[in-house]
Write a structure and sequence with these properties.
Layout lengths: L3 H64 L2 H20 L9 H26 L3 H88 L14 H50 L3 H18 L1 H18 L6 E3 H18 L4 E8 L6 E3 L4 H12 L6 E9 L3 E8 L6 H7 L10 H13 L5 E6 L3 E9 L16
Parallel strand pairs: 2-4
Antiparallel strand pairs: 1-3, 4-5, 5-7, 6-7
Helix pairs in contact: 1-2, 1-3, 1-4, 2-3, 3-4, 4-5, 6-7, 6-8, 7-8
Length: 484
């Protein structure tokens, strides 16, 4: 089978080879030209620099002749050193055409340097008239250096004129070659693309026609493709699919009604589970509470028992309220007090409660029953199993962007792997526990970082909740809370 991919690869490789060859030739010629231009430019710049510095050093020489200071002498020596180095670099300008002229040129510069040194000695010997004579001679030599530089520049231009003309002609030829090559490749590619696309589109049109027949419900019209590539395989597969659809259509129709009924049942089941989570109450807790109430009524009389019954009623009413509505932190703390009173009534001297508040923003909103389940977990798993009971502490502090609520106990602690499992959903649990609280807080505040659990063996556990200030009264805009 002649695969479409093979044809595309061959076509692409051919184009790449042609373009790469053209690019390589152009790059080589361009690099060669640029290198030649650079060398030529450097020669011109060196000649110009020598001529310019030969004139500039005269100003320093005159300054020394007039001032005769140490500073002017040091400056003169520096300028002479530069001119000496430039004269040494002029050796690079030598070639078979200008060897004699360059030697003569270098000799003139050496003569200027020598004359300047003699003027320097005359100044130091206080022979001012002789110094002036040497200075004038240095000026004449510098003028001759300038004239010789112009002659060398003309010679350089004359020597390279023919090369410039050849390179210009070569550039024009390269341009014509590029246009011709690109035009040829474009026409060649256009023809191949047309032939290639025609073979594919004809097969695709047959497939589209067959798909339209299937869309109309006609499963008896086969698809015929005249090709020897993937399109033939696609057409055969399409025909097999058409036959399979024809055989399965009846089975799908017969199952459609049953699947609809199953989905409706699943929706009803999920709704029932949600309502069950919203209204569930710990039966064991209710039983023990009522038992404690009956015993206290028998022992103490009606007043304290009545107060305890009011506490239980408040707790029940809070638990049976609309689970979707948020509450304030103050309301959640009030219900914690009710819950602790019941625990202390049931288990005298076994549980102590401490509350520390370092903020006045207790009207921040949070999901209802966010703190009480954690307090209950602390009692059930840490305080109650202990022989001597224990203490549950709540510390509320303010941070720049959130209120921190820390629920701490002094129990035996929680293992690290157990902490991780508490923060993960487990469909086998009868209730979702801390995971449910974390999930609801995360949805409510729109933040992932809402809880942190730390624990140390035989020291205790701390569950820290972050209540973000976006839920303060000035920014409430509260929507009904999804039940996690």
């Amino acid at each position: 089978m002649n695969k479409i991919q093979h044809r595309i690869v061959v076509l692409s490789l051919g184009i790449i080879v042609v373009m790469a060859s053209f690019w390589a030739v152009i790059s080589y010629l361009n690099h060669h030209s640029m290198k030649y231009y650079q060398v030529t430019l450097e020669r011109y710049l060196l000649l110009n620099e020598i001529s310019t510095h030969s004139q500039a050093v005269l100003m320093v020489l005159n300054d020394y002749k007039l001032k005769q200071t140490t500073t002017s002498l040091e400056k003169l020596n520096a300028e002479q050193e530069i001119l000496t180095n430039l004269n040494q670099q002029s050796l690079q300008l030598k070639n078979e055409h200008n060897q004699y002229f360059i030697d003569n040129y270098r000799g003139i510069i050496d003569s200027q340097l020598n004359t300047m040194e003699m003027m320097e000695r005359a100044v130091q010997s206080n022979q001012l008239q002789l110094a002036q004579t040497f200075y004038d001679e240095s000026v004449d030599i510098s003028q001759y250096v300038n004239e010789t530089t112009l002659s060398l520049l003309k010679m350089e231009i004359s020597d390279h004129e023919q090369i410039y003309e050849r390179m210009i002609h070569l550039g024009e030829s390269i341009t014509k070659l590029g246009v011709t090559t690109l035009g040829t490749v474009f026409v060649f590619l256009l023809i191949l693309s047309y032939l290639f696309s025609k073979g594919i589109t004809k097969s695709i049109e047959s497939l589209i026609k067959g798909a339209k027949e299937i869309a109309k419900g006609n499963f008896d019209q086969p698809i015929n493709v005249k090709a020897n590539d993937e399109m033939l395989f696609l057409a055969d597969t399409f025909n097999q699919m058409r036959q399979s659809i024809k055989e399965l259509i009846q089975e799908i129709k017969s199952k459609a009604k049953l699947e609809k009924e199953v989905k409706e049942y699943e929706l009803l089941l999920k709704d029932s589970e949600l309502k069950l989570l919203q209204s569930q109450m710990n039966p064991h807790f209710l039983f023990n509470t009522l038992n404690a109430l009956s015993k206290k009524a028998y022992v103490e009389g009606a007043k304290e028992t009545s107060n305890l019954m009011v506490t239980v009623a408040n707790l029940l009413r809070y638990n049976l309220r609309n689970f979707d509505l948020p509450v304030t932190l103050q309301e959640e703390l009030d219900i914690i007090h009710e819950y602790i009173e019941i625990l202390q009534a049931r288990f005298p001297n076994r549980v102590q409660f401490e509350l520390s508040i370092q903020t006045d923003q207790l009207d921040i909103l949070l999901p209802s029953l966010s703190i009480q389940p954690i307090v209950e977990n602390a009692f059930v798993h840490s305080i109650d199993p202990s022989e001597f009971g224990g203490t549950i502490s709540i510390n509320i502090s303010e941070h720049p962007s959130y209120i921190m609520v820390e629920i701490m106990d002094d129990g035996k602690g929680i293992a690290v792997d157990k902490i991780q499992s508490l923060l993960q959903f487990d469909q086998n649990r009868k209730s979702h526990g801390i995971y449910s609280v974390v999930k609801r807080l995360s949805i409510f505040f729109g933040e992932e970082d809402v809880v942190d659990i730390t624990s140390k063996p035989n020291i205790g556990t701390c569950v820290a909740l972050k209540l973000y200030k976006a839920r303060l009264p000035s920014e409430r805009g509260v929507q009904p809370l999804p039940d996690g």
